[in-house]
């Protein structure tokens, strides 16, 4: 059930052509999809219109006739009730820097665009907060004086909008212009009415689940936009005990004797809380109406497949948000193998924290080819990750618009392969010896363009582990059972929850190997300074994360994968001064690698450099299969049973010999191969046709796939 969902996009023409809708559902069924997820897109109608309701009824009846699961993709929450509750609209604040000269100032006000779902733009409506500030030589704020009630100003709206006024003291000021919007404040206590309103439109439909695609209760704007509406500010103060506006300057500025990272964490944690609460309300209401075991998706990895922009969108804590979904969901694009590999592995890790254990990847491409579809669907099959088909209907520039695409016929064999491996692997899962902690909190600590390096390094680690056949779990900072792993990578330890920091120190004290990578640890999310403890653990002092040094060597930089940078973001390193640690890496005269007993620290984005090969060589004991690099594999376990699944990268065939549990296994001319063992004995094999498989020198028969 829910092994092969696909999005069905109803545009205006299809909405009005019920025969075409029935044909679409039949076509979807024939290809092997089992769940139809309906969305109104490029449509003048929706679920509130009689025409939209009639079209959805036709889909429902067609799915029932063919035995398919059916659900509606819920639109963005809020716009459907904003007219009813205009008092609960969002207000935004954007930082502007100005200079008071001879007690006068004039500031060009930024134009902020809407982020979809409504047709109106944000409008400047005054000043939310203003500060007179004094900085030190490193641009850190020494003093910030609230001057909101002490400035006089006027807004002059032309092609360019300006805010001009007067203040009694010359110097730098930070002015936070307030913008009115027509989005709903996600902290508004009546936000659940948005969900209820959609459910009312679905009355009488036998829905098998729900989907809120790419939902986050943050701001999707790529500008430095912050929520300052009354409902959000009240929720912030109730949760943290202080007024956000009093410290809003810390969201984008560093200050002496102030933990700016904690303010940033508090802000983004609240947006994640709001995302979580709304998702939970959806889950609870659907369960109440339609029962248990519902499909619940889609992904939270919205901006650029695990992009750090998800911090702004309020959905970067993928693990916690998995609570309200029925599996581990991601999206990815075929245009980069690293993205496909790393996001597929993220889905597998998220699935281990979900109610079903199922992993899903909504993957697609703006220029899908038969070669891409074939390879990446085999990748999903081998890794036991389910494809969310994207999409049937008119999609514009966002991927193949099935059935009008050359790869539509190929989806049938792709799904047959995936379902075969889903059944063959069953409930078996990988049992890695190595884990990497996903510290999204450190992304919040930076809250600037450099935070994209967290994602680049994370994707690089996962991709390179896959190519080296080293299984790895990505784990949240809330994971308490670190003892089941032999080794732990902590990527970006800059800001950690107190409990996570204590767990890491306890893990290291037990003699387990810990590898820190990236900017140095500074504080806990609770605001406690842990710099000295980190220095004691690693045996070295480091510079401040905002006082790094440009890395002068070669490194991987995928420019198209960083959506929000107007120019290249240079990679930083953080030179170390050993205390009682041993120097392990010197680059251009700077120490950037140290070790102390079983703890190692590399103070730069090591996974993006050739230095990572040296580290990888020390992780080989975590490798379960010794295979050539043109092969993708997975080892899954269920009690005493093991399942090996393999395929070639791109057009490569599987031609290799390896040993597993005392068995010498030789595969010749393989495309997709699955091998099941009970204990140390090979008991079942599946493969595409024309492959030769030998176990301990004897040729073995296999069940042919497809």
From TrEMBL:
Family matches, as Gene3D superfamilies: 3.40.50.880
Highest taxon listed in the record's lineage: Bacteria
Matches recorded under InterPro entries: Class_I_gatase-like
Protein name, as recorded: Beta-galactosidase trimerisation domain-containing protein
Organism of derivation: Paenibacillus lignilyticus
């Amino acid at each position: 059930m829910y092994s092969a969902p696909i999005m069905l996009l109803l545009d205006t023409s299809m909405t009005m052509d019920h025969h075409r809708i029935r044909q679409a559902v039949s076509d979807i069924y024939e290809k092997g999809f089992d769940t139809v997820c309906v969305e109104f897109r490029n449509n003048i109608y929706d679920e509130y219109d009689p025409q939209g309701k009639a079209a959805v009824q036709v889909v429902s009846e067609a799915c029932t006739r063919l035995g398919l699961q059916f659900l509606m993709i819920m639109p963005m929450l809020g716009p459907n009730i904003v007219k009813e509750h205009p008092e609960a609209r969002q207000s935004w604040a954007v930082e502007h820097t100005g200079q008071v000269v001879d007690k006068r100032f004039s500031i060009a006000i930024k134009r902020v665009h809407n982020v979809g779902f409504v047709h109106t733009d944000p409008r400047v409506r005054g000043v939310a907060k203003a500060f007179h500030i004094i900085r030190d030589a490193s641009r850190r704020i020494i003093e910030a004086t609230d001057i909101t009630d002490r400035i006089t100003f006027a807004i002059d709206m032309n092609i360019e909008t300006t805010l001009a006024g007067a203040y009694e003291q010359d110097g730098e000021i930070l002015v936070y212009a307030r913008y009115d919007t027509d989005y709903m404040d996600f902290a508004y206590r009546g936000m659940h009415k948005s969900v209820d309103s959609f459910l009312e439109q679905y009355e009488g439909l036998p829905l098998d689940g729900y989907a809120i695609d790419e939902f986050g209760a943050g701001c999707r704007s790529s500008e430095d936009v912050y929520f300052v509406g009354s409902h959000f500010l009240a929720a912030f103060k109730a949760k943290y005990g202080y007024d956000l506006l009093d410290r809003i300057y810390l969201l984008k500025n560093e200050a002496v004797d102030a933990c700016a990272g904690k303010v940033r964490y508090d802000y983004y944690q609240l947006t994640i809380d709001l995302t979580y609460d709304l998702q939970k309300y959806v889950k609870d209401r659907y369960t109440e109406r339609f029962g248990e075991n519902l499909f619940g998706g889609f992904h939270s990895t919205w901006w650029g497949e695990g992009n750090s922009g998800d911090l702004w969108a309020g959905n970067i804590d993928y693990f916690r948000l998995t609570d309200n979904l029925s599996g581990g969901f991601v999206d990815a694009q075929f245009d980069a193998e690293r993205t496909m590999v790393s996001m597929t592995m993220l889905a597998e890790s998220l699935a281990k924290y979900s109610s079903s254990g199922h992993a899903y990847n909504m993957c697609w491409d703006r220029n899908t080819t038969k070669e891409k579809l074939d390879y990446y669907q085999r990748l999903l099959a081998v890794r036991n990750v389910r494809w969310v088909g994207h999409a049937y209907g008119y999609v514009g520039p966002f991927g193949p618009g099935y059935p009008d695409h050359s790869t539509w016929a190929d989806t049938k064999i792709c799904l047959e392969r995936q379902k075969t491996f889903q059944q063959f692997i069953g409930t078996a899962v990988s049992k890695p010896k190595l884990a990497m902690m996903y510290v999204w909190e450190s992304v919040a600590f930076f809250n600037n363009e450099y935070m994209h390096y967290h994602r680049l390094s994370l994707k690089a680690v996962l991709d390179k582990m896959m190519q080296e056949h080293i299984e790895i779990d990505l784990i949240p900072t809330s994971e308490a059972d670190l003892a089941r792993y032999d080794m732990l990578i902590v990527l970006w330890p800059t800001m950690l929850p107190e409990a996570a920091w204590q767990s890491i120190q306890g893990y290291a004290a037990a003699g387990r190997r810990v590898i820190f990578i990236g900017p140095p640890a500074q504080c806990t999310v609770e605001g406690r300074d842990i710099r000295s403890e980190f220095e004691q653990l690693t045996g070295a002092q480091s510079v401040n994360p905002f006082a790094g040094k440009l890395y002068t060597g070669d490194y991987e930089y995928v420019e198209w994968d960083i959506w929000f940078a107007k120019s290249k973001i240079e990679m930083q390193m953080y030179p170390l001064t050993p205390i009682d640690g041993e120097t392990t890496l010197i680059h251009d005269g700077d120490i950037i690698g140290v070790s102390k007993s079983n703890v190692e620290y590399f103070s730069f984005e090591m996974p993006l450099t050739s230095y990572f090969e040296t580290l990888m060589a020390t992780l080989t004991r975590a490798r379960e299969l010794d295979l050539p690099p043109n092969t993708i594999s997975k080892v899954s376990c269920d009690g005493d049973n093991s399942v090996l699944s393999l395929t070639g990268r791109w057009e490569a065939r599987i031609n290799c010999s390896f040993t597993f549990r005392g068995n010498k296994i030789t595969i010749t001319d393989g495309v997709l191969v699955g091998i099941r063992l009970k204990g140390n004995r090979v008991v079942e094999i599946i493969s595409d046709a024309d492959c030769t498989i030998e176990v301990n020198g004897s040729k073995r028969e296999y069940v042919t796939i497809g």
